[in-house]
């Protein structure tokens, strides 16, 4: 794992992201911390890789760095097919339709890919793993985010509840640190 981790961070450093600001850190610092948070919570290596690359193509909100989607094959070769797919979908999701899908309780989930305009359909397992990537990204950065503690708060709570256990515990721990209104 250590050799692979160095490959991933070297790839990111070669892109220059250690110079890109992100939530009072560097973009590289945020990505590494998402990986470490997911790892510390006992998530699979595949999900940790997806977490490290969760915004590599830019997201609906974060546009400080965007690797062109034409680079997907290169990223896929580096982190694995499923990890790259989850990272891409985290980047491409239209958040409003994703949040709506997270309300569901079926075997398939649909939301809009904002980059292509197409509807994405995922199995429950893949959707829940995408929720994990999305939730853990936000939990890592919320204390430093300019969007504030209330940004999509209900949607993130629903994601934590649908995942249960450690996800709810993490959500509660993070939000316990919310500054008190004066």
Task: Characterise this structure.
This protein has a single domain, classed as Hypothetical protein af1432 (Orthogonal Bundle), CATH 1.10.3210. The longest helix has 18 residues. The protein has 182 residues and is mainly alpha-helical. Strands 1-2 form a two-stranded antiparallel ribbon. It has a two-stranded antiparallel sheet with strand order 3-4. The relative contact order is 0.11. The model has no long low-confidence stretch (mean pLDDT 95). Helix 3 packs across helix 5 and helix 4 crosses helix 5. The protein has nine helices and four strands, in the order αββαααααββααα.
Question: Main attributes?
Answer:
globular, 182 residues, mainly alpha, 57% helix, two-stranded antiparallel sheet
Please report the first level of CATH classification, the CATH class.
Mainly Alpha
Poorly predicted runs of 5 or more residues: none
Number of strands: 4
Strand order of the largest sheet: 1-2
Strand % is: 5-15%
> What order do the helices and strands follow?
HEEHHHHHEEHHH
Which value, in Å, is the CA radius of gyration?
A: 16 Å
Separation of the first and last Cα atoms: 46 Å
Compute the number of structural domains: 1
Q: Number of helix segments?
A: 9
Tell me what the CATH architecture is: Orthogonal Bundle
Shape: globular
What's the main sheet like? 2 strands, antiparallel
**Helix content, binned percent:** 55-70%
What's the SSE blueprint?
Blueprint: H1 2-14, E1 21-22, E2 25-26, H2 27-40, H3 45-52, H4 72-79, H5 81-92, H6 95-101, E3 108-112, E4 119-123, H7 124-141, H8 153-163, H9 165-176
Antiparallel strand pairs: 1-2, 3-4
Helix pairs in contact: 2-3, 2-7, 3-5, 3-7, 4-5, 5-7, 7-8, 7-9, 8-9
